[in-house]
Amino acid sequence: MTDILNRVLNDQDPLKKLVGKIPGFSGYINRENRRSADKLLRESIAAQYETIYKKISAIQVDLISNGGIEFLDDAEKASLQIRIFTDRIRNATYGYSGFFDSVKIDENDINAMYAFDLAFVETGEKLSSELDSLAGNITNSEGLPAFIRNIAFLAKQLNETFDQRNNLLSKPEASV
Could you count the other beta carbons within 10 Å of the beta carbon of residue 65? Predict the structure, then answer.
């Protein structure tokens, strides 16, 4: 995550660098850099889950082709949870409020948000691995329910974790 912030800092135009030297204004620039980094992070996570969504969609086609139609409903529930999460993360509030924003987010809350984002990335890696395993076992009708239940659980957990992240942003002490 610091790589993304460093990328934003290195891409600053000369005007931002100059304005960053004005006393009192650098905090504003740092907040804006955090917002830019957070936006890049959010787009990266959304892209990760787009790939996961495509995997589960391909698995649904394979389920139909291999006579696993009875598992399609549960796979669709997982797919829908992943789609909802992807849309939510893509449109999430950026991690640091701007100078004129009515909601201010402190440094501890930003760190907590990054912890949530890290959990999203790690869950995405786990989901992707589970989907690869499911794709390799698509003809094993005995193991399919457990695979699909686990994927559905992880997908549901994503949205619950996202709700916790949103609660962090909407807590009363975060507003001015």
Answer: 10
Task: Convert the pLDDT of each residue in 50-87 to its tens digit.
Answer: 999 999 999 999 999 998 899 999 999 999 999 999 99
- The domain segmentation of the chain, as residue ranges, is 46-174
DSSP classification of residue 94: P
CA 123, CA 50: separation in Å to the nearest integer?
Answer: 14
CB burial of residue 9 (10 Å; 0-12, 13-18, 19+): middle
Q: Which pair of structure tokens corresponds to residue 127?
A: 């989901």
Round to whole Å and give the CA distance between 81 and 102. 31
C-beta separation of 95 from 113 below 8 A: yes
The residue type at 100: F
* Rg of the chain over all Cα atoms, to the nearest angstrom: 20
Specify the amino acid at residue 26. S
CB 116 within 8 A of CB 165: yes
The residue written with tokens 């003809």 in the block is 139
pTM, entire model: 0.74
Cα(13)–Cα(11) distance, rounded to whole angstroms?
6
